[in-house]
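Structure ticket #2291
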Amino acid sequence: MKKQTRRKFTPEFKAKVALEAVKNQQTLAELGLKFELSPVIISKWKGEFLENMSSVFEKGMKNGEEQGPDVDGLYAQIGKLKVENEFLKKSCKKLGI
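Resolution: structure written out below.
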């Protein structure tokens, strides 16, 4: 006898189902038949979708400012690479390469 495992759904699929539920063109029962899901799950996903939909527009923002690359971290990495490069150049000269 094979043990039944839980189905796992991708975030894209969940968003698609939740968006269909938000449109209110079909009942939750109809959507449940269409997507082979329980109306309770669809209702839960719809609630999560409505609760978190504002985060879509906050993705590139942090406290009202655009998030850019970590400039200090990049400069530190450049400095480290320069030191390593100079060390390798000196080592190659000593070895005659």
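Closing remark: The radius of gyration is 27 Å.
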